[in-house]
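Lab notebook, entry 181. We have the chain sequence and a SMILES string for S-adenosylmethionine, and the next step in the workflow is to get a structural model of the bound complex before anyone spends time on docking refinements. Request logged below.

Task: model protein plus S-adenosylmethionine, output structure tokens.
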Amino acid sequence: MELERQIKPVHSNKTAQDYSLMTDKEMAALKSYCTDKTVIEIGSFKGASSKAIGKVAKRLLCIDKFEPLKWGDAIIPSTLAEFLDSIEGLDNVSYLKMSSDDAIEQIHRFEKHPKADVVFIDGDHSYKQCLRDLQHYIQVHPMVILVHDYSYMFGGVIAACQEFFNRLPDGLTDSLAVYFV
Ligand SMILES: C[S@@+](CC[C@H](N)C(=O)[O-])C[C@H]1O[C@@H](n2cnc3c(N)ncnc32)[C@H](O)[C@@H]1O
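Result returned:
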């Protein structure tokens, strides 16, 4: 995908591992599905999963709003700097700083027939947005869709997957669901 990196990385002494929101088993499964593949990731946060995918994938496009997040009563400031730090040196990784809804429009604008082998969804976990992400990103004709946080703690994610696929996942590693398309 010919989408260019927008900003040069900045430096800090933190590593992506410091920021991981996935279990070791989920990371291992994620990497196995993404190895040598073209991948779109929705929801990058501080770049832990992006770095893991970027190290093994042919190409990775990361999509994230990188806006401050509400976490309970706390506000997490934008994670863009940490994300850039995580993907430093990975020339196969690009990103779009925008909502997944806006990003799919951009992708269609750049590519007449957009294509990615794997779509990894870990963005907005509400039923409505997760369903929209599935509906939008099936348009890049992936062979595999991975959905993180397929768990009782995120009922919206499970409901959206059920609505969209009308079946249980083809595989589940902790809360990483796998659907073959
Ligand atoms: C759970 S975190 C992603 C974690 C990351 N995949 C990892 O494992 O390190 C969710 C991310 O999704 C992003 N996000 C939420 N809603 C979004 C949307 N509609 N479009 C794009 N990104 C979104 C947030 O900014 C946040 O960084």
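Notes for the group: The chain has a mean pLDDT of 91. Worth checking against the assay data. The two ends are 20 Å apart (CA to CA).
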